[in-house]
Amino acid sequence: MSPKQDLPPWPFVPSGRTVEIARSEGCFLYTKDGHAILDASGGAIVANIGHGRQEVVEAVARSMAEKNYIVPPFATDDRLGLVERLQKKWLPKHLPRVHLSSGGSEAVDVALRLARLYHVNRGEPSRYKIIGRDISYHGTTVACLSVSGHDSRRAGLEPMWNQVPLAPTPYPLRHHERGGGDCGGACAQALEEIIIAEGPETVAAVIGEPIIGSSGGAIVPPDNYWPKVQEICKRYGLLLIADEVMTGFGRTGKRFGSEHWDIKADIMVSGKGLTAGYAPLVGVYATDEIVDVLVENNQSLMFYTYGGQSSACAASNAVLDIMEREKLVDRVQEMAPVLERHLNRLAQHPHVAEIRGRGFLWSLEIVKDRETLERFAPEDNITNRIVGAGMANGAFFYPGGTGPVRDIITLGPPYIIAEEEIDQMVTILETSIDQALAKAH
Ligand SMILES: Cc1ncc(COP(=O)(O)O)c(C=O)c1O
């Protein structure tokens, strides 16, 4: 059968015009015809150390020339070097065990399996439910979507998983739409009510992003929320899984987002910043206790063929060398107020409801009316219009939002961004919002 449409070769399901990038350097992408695009979101909040760092390229080439593929259970110098470095310099001390996957979804899937297998092997096989939250994204495998509160990515797939309810994610800007009051306390209490309704003896774990990524637009929860969730998990014998795929490795101004509160997840997943886009590698980090239970019961955890690819570990070692040498987590912390100050130029914009975030992860929520917080209609397609205008004006902003959170523009620039580039980024953002909204009116 001949195709109904004349489809471009990429991507799989095309939508709009495909942009072709020829090369990338520092904070910029360059199209084939030489048009420069400021990578305001580091792609999908990934390119933390900037583009074109030759020492990473050389480390990958060296590793690949030595050994192209070594099955994951075997050790290599790159794998051992990375695990030791993570244990010594990066991971919270209570999470020393490292599993390596090649993507965030794969890694979250490991975390879900791990939580289940831990309970099975310690003699509580009734615990299998994982409770996610209603504004969240944990990846795109069927299992990951089953715990994600991302309506558009879940749509059509819902019958494929167990129907475990999602707990409310704190969303302070619109908490009044849920009755108002203590946002963090109410959301933690609602989680507890779900656990009780489901039967605590059937629940294995709770999963959440410490600070929501682009699905909710960098929502920072109230300070009382995570400590209460941790306490509830402990009380009912559940594991707490922190999904730090986006927030890990300095993005929010600390090594990991959970460090903003006094919480200790039992399992943490973190990756984008582990290789900053130079290779596919994401880690799952667990306590000794969890792994002890598996070892005692002879329980294996199947690897992914490309998990912990040795050259990806070499890339990660080189990326973390740069992060450590250039003190980039400290830089994020120091420069965050500068980024915030520039973004605040938009604080009085009639269509900006809120500018929120932490460190170098920031989002703007765009609304029709900032007094009433009325949203634009989905058909107005505001997010895509702004992102499209941004591209035409020379910057890539990350589109986000889902369900009740509409029209989110996220910024997650490389940690090396200069103040002049921040200024340029915010100027382009302002122009792009105005152009997109002028067309929408
Ligand atoms: C918090 C979080 N978890 C999981 C994922 C899925 O990662 P991947 O796209 O590498 O599968 C993402 C991706 O953006 C994410 O932000």
Care to describe what's here?
With about 450 residues, this protein is of the alpha+beta class. The protein folds into 2 domains: about 20-50 and about 325-440, Alpha-Beta Complex (Aspartate Aminotransferase, domain 1), CATH 3.90.1150; about 55-325, Type I PLP-dependent aspartate aminotransferase-like (Major domain) (Aspartate Aminotransferase, domain 2), CATH 3.40.640. The chain has 14 helices and 13 strands. The protein has helices spanning about 40-45, 55-65, 75-90, 105-120, 140-145, 150-155, 185-200, 225-235, 270-275, 290-295, 310-325, 330-345, 380-395, 420-440; strands at about 20-25, 30, 35-40, 95-100, 130, 205-210, 240-245, 265-270, 280-285, 350-360, 360-365, 400, 405-410. The strands form 3 sheets. Strands 4-9-8-7-6-5 form a 6-stranded mixed β-sheet, with helices on both faces. A 4-stranded antiparallel β-sheet has the order 10-11-13-12. It has a 3-stranded antiparallel β-sheet with strand order 1-2-3, with no helix packed on it. Strand 10 (about 350-360) and strand 11 form a beta hairpin. Helix 2 (about 55-65) runs antiparallel to helix 11 (about 310-325) and helix 7 packs parallel to helix 8 (about 225-235). It is globular. The mean pLDDT is about 95. The protein binds pyridoxal-5'-phosphate. Pyridoxal-5'-phosphate binds near residues 108, 209 and 246. Pyridoxal-5'-phosphate (PLP) binds near residues 44, 104, 105 and 243.
